[in-house]
Design goal:
The chain is an alpha+beta fold. It folds into two domains: about 200 residues, Up-down Bundle (Multidrug efflux transporter AcrB transmembrane fold), CATH 1.20.1640.10; about 80 residues, Alpha-Beta Plaits, CATH 3.30.70.3400. Helix content is about 65%, strand content about 10%. The strands form two sheets. Strands 3-4-2-5 form a four-stranded antiparallel beta sheet. The termini are far apart.
């Protein structure tokens, strides 16, 4: 598919644009880290533990009435929200220590049935606080492990300066995606962790495609500066990057709009991650490699030492 009639010649990595991109990324990273430090994340039941119920009413649910009855029944720190349609409600409670799950389920069913005897319990989940802590730790370790393995892979395939650029771009994507959830107070659960890991894979693929073209042009374009060669390479893969990103975003937007509340956090994480990942593969990864003074010589095999050759039998 041909997106441009002529090959574009956009100066992505010119000094001015490069500095603006770095400044923009630094501001977003500071906002994300600052919000995470001050507000933190609105962890879902997967991480905090507790009780989660999804119920359906035959008519529009009376949320103030549900909250009032939960309070009168002695439940504290509850959260009652609509879950899609006006008839769908989600109730979240902290861990109920020392109470049997069946007793909690029956108690909540009676409370929620006060307005509608035919209320339907569509989903009931019980997660202990210990399990939530373990998932939090394992999710963080998974992301760190992925970044380390990616650094090793890119360094083996290309060179350590490219690897540093790739890992910087992926760390940039992860921080901004998670920061988005902190800034807007969106529930952060295991599906979002899965989405962030998927974003890492998508962004890495985009970065590797760009680096492949840069490596080819470093060898093919003799006497051209690293900056110019990298600019040419990014322009050559620009159509592929745009087509891939737009088609993926169309699918995710449909999933966000039509998939309901249960997949909304997952869809949003992927949408934000793909937008940020496309940006970082063009600017962050290539800019970091350029700052580290990557050049065609870095991709050349090391020259043999003539003294060692002479000493060979």
């Amino acid at each position: 598919m041909r997106l441009f009639k002529e090959k574009p010649s956009i100066d992505f990595l010119g000094r001015t644009r490069r500095n603006i991109a770095i400044g923009f990324s630094v501001v977003l990273i500071v906002i994300s880290i600052g919000t995470l430090a001050i507000r933190g994340l609105d962890f879902g039941i997967d991480f905090t533990g507790g009780v989660l119920l999804e119920v359906g009413y035959s008519e529009s649910a009376n949320l103030p009435g549900i909250r009032s009855r939960l309070r009168d029944a002695g439940y504290d720190d509850y959260r009652v929200t609509r879950f899609g349609a006006d008839t769908d409600v989600q109730v979240r409670l902290p861990p109920q220590i020392g109470v049997e799950p069946d007793a909690i389920r029956e108690s909540l069913r009676e409370i929620l049935a006060a307005d509608d005897p035919n209320v339907e319990l569509r989903r009931v989940e019980f997660v202990s606080a210990q399990v939530g802590d373990e998932l939090t730790e394992q999710g963080g370790l998974a992301m760190i492990f992925v970044l380390i393995m990616i650094f090793a892979y890119v360094m083996f395939r290309f060179q350590w300066k490219f690897a540093a650029g790739a890992v910087a771009a992926l760390a940039h994507d992860v921080i901004l995606t998670i920061g988005f959830f902190s800034v807007f107070g969106i529930s952060f659960d295991l599906s979002v962790v899965a989405a962030v890991l998927a974003v890492i894979g998508y962004s890495l693929n985009d970065t590797v495609v760009t680096f492949d073209r840069i490596r080819e042009n470093f060898v093919k374009l003799r006497g051209v500066s690293s900056e110019e060669s990298m600019n040419i390479s990014i322009n050559e893969v620009l159509a592929r990057t745009i087509i891939t990103g737009v088609t993926t975003l169309l699918v995710l937007t449909a999933l966000l709009v039509l998939g309901g509340e249960s997949v909304a956090p997952f869809s949003m994480a992927l949408i934000v991650g793909i937008v940020v990942g496309t940006y970082s593969s063009i600017y962050t990864a290539s800019t970091v490699a350029l700052i580290l003074d990557v050049s065609a010589q870095d991709l050349m095999p090391p020259e043999a030492d003539p003294d060692l050759i002479d000493d060979l039998p």
